[in-house]
Each structure stands twice: as C-alpha cells, then as structure tokens.
Amino acid sequence: MIKKEELLSELNRDLELLLGNERNMIANLANASALLFNRLPDINWSGFYLLAGDELILGPFQGKPACVRIPVGKGVCGTAFRDRKTYVVDDVHEFPGHIACDAASESEMVIPIIVKGKPVGVMDLDSPIKSRFDELDQRYLEEFVAILIEKTDFCKILDE
User: Which of 21, 32, 71, 110 is geometrically suited to a Cys-Cys bond with 80, CB 3.0 to 4.6 A?
Assistant: First the structure.
C-alpha cells in the first residue's frame, strides 16, 4: 500500500503532467477536480468555487450536486476566501455558519486561490469522515493549488 506522503507527492507530479501546456481555466480545474476525486481516499466532493461579483459561484467539481452560490465570508469556502487562508475543519457541524451542501460531509479542507495578490476562488475538498485532513494534506494540497495557479490563465476573473 502506498504511503500517504508518497501518494500526495505523486498527485502533484501527475497534475503537472495532466495539465501539460494547457492554460484554459475550465479545462484545468475540471481535470484537477477529477484527479483529486479519483485519487484521494475518503473524499466525497472535490471542486472549485470562483469569484463572480461579490460571491463565489460553483466551478468544475466531482461529487454530488452542490450549492451554486456562496457569499464571501459565509461557510468554510466563503471564510477561507475572505481570510485568504486555508481552513482544515475536522467537524463541519462545529464550524459557525457551515453550509451543508451534502449531508454526508463530516470534514472539509478549503484552500484559497490567490493570483497576483488577488483571491479568485477556492479549492474545496469534503470527506464523509471526521478529521480526514491533516497538516500533510494541507502542505501538499496547497502545493497542488500553486501548480494550478502557475499553469492556469485566471485573467477572466482578475479582469472583473
């Protein structure tokens, strides 16, 4: 069985290869969400919310249908976006103002996507297991987001 750190490192290498020279935001985020959903154990949702006006709107994802709009500052996604920092939530039911899109979700990690100093969205991962995410996940998945930022053209969001 593959060790967790090796799996996460391989995930980041595979993202680099998968994206190649593609710069399209929708294509890259779609493939990234599929890669996460299919490779990370104990995940029931992986995807992205992108800034549209003064709220986050659902982007490419894998999993059950999700909330379409999240106000900045609301729920884990809106809070991570507003605060420009990663949130690792061991028990979503204890997070003030948690937005329950899937009742099966027990824990969550949300990483902001910050391009040229401006937040443009978040990467959201949900798990049906409490305390699913740890510091190792955070370190490697923040690197995953950094790879996405480097290889993806977010200019449409930046221009708004």
Answer: 110
